């Protein structure tokens, strides 16, 4: 696929960098407010409040009909969990929050997972492995690298820890639209897929599970969950491909 049309110019990169910083700060605020006893709708309300405060627009709302500003997915839910007033976060839950924003007509996208209260050692390990797999995927970006190099780095690390990557859901280009080419799978072979050109902006988002990688969609038509109900974890960063490697545009730490 010819990706030259998706290369961002310097002004667009500056805008995406500023928007990514805002999104990172919004997600940090959400993370610090996640605790047992709150509803996932309360997370949505906070996200909306923070968007107003930072004068940005939520990117997910009404995207292909999605009804909310954030996705809040718990335990076996992988992605796209719709916030609900009746869904209460409990101690021991593994919670993933995914959000995109529009800042000056350009979009960034990021996600984190966190354990609420006391979590099992297995879930702690799942969090650590997913976070590191994202770091490995980003570190694989070098001159003339490809989307397959990213997927290979993620898959190799995850499967080396006896966990599984979800293969039916992928990362993507981002910027003028929430989802742009290229697709960025969390598996692959070195030097396969699309070549990553300097100026491309992509969202890399490993989704990792303790059990089988098979997923189903809930009756709401949005929420993906693991078929065997094993816990799922999700981290995502928007990344700029540079001449020498990659720059994270959505700092979450």
Describe this structure in words.
There is one protein chain. Helix 1 crosses helix 2. Helices cover 28% and strands 25% of the residues. It has helices spanning 10-33, 40-54, 121-139, 147-160, and strands spanning 57-58, 70-74, 77-79, 94-103, 106-115, 164-165, 171-173, 180-184, 201-204, 207-209, 215-217, 224-226, 232-234, 237-241, 246-248. By secondary structure, the chain is of the alpha+beta class. It is globular, with a radius of gyration of 17 Å. Strand 11 (215-217) and strand 12 (224-226) form a beta hairpin. The protein has one domain (4-248): Creatine Amidinohydrolase (Alpha-Beta Complex), CATH 3.90.230.10. The model has no long low-confidence stretch (mean pLDDT 97). The strands form four sheets. It has a five-stranded antiparallel sheet with strand order 8-7-9-14-15. Strands 1, 2, 4 and 5 form a four-stranded antiparallel sheet that branches. Strands 3-12-11 form a three-stranded antiparallel sheet, with no helix packed on it.
> In CATH, what is the homologous superfamily?
Creatinase/methionine aminopeptidase superfamily
CATH architecture tag: Alpha-Beta Complex
Mean model confidence by pLDDT: 97
CATH class categorisation: Alpha Beta
Helix-residue proportion:
25-40%
What count of structural domains? 1
Global morphology: globular
């Amino acid at each position: 696929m010819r990706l030259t049309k998706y290369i961002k110019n310097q002004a667009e990169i500056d805008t995406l960098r500023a928007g990514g910083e805002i999104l990172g700060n919004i997600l940090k605020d959400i993370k610090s407010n996640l605790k047992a006893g709150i509803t996932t709708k309360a997370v949505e309300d906070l996200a909306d409040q923070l968007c107003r405060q930072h004068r940005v627009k939520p990117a997910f709302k009404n995207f292909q009909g999605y009804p909310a500003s954030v996705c809040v997915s718990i335990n076996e839910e992988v992605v796209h969990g719709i916030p609900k007033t009746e869904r209460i976060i409990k101690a021991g839950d593994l919670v993933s929050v995914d959000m995109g924003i529009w800042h000056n007509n350009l979009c960034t996208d990021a996600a984190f997972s966190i354990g609420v209260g006391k979590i099992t050692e297995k879930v702690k390990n799942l969090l650590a492995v997913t976070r590191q797999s994202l770091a490995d995927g980003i570190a694989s970006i070098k001159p003339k690298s490809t989307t397959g190099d990213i997927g290979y780095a993620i898959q190799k690390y995850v499967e080396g820890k006896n966990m599984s990557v979800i293969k039916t859901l992928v990362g993507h280009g981002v910027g003028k639209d929430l989802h742009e080419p290229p697709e960025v799978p969390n598996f692959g072979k070195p030097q396969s897929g699309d070549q990553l050109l300097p100026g491309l902006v992509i969202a890399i988002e490993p989704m990792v599970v303790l059990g089988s990688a098979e997923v189903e969609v809930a009756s709401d038509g949005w929420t993906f969950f693991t078929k065997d109900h094993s816990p799922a974890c999700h981290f995502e960063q928007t990344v700029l491909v540079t001449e020498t490697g990659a720059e994270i545009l959505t700092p979450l730490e």
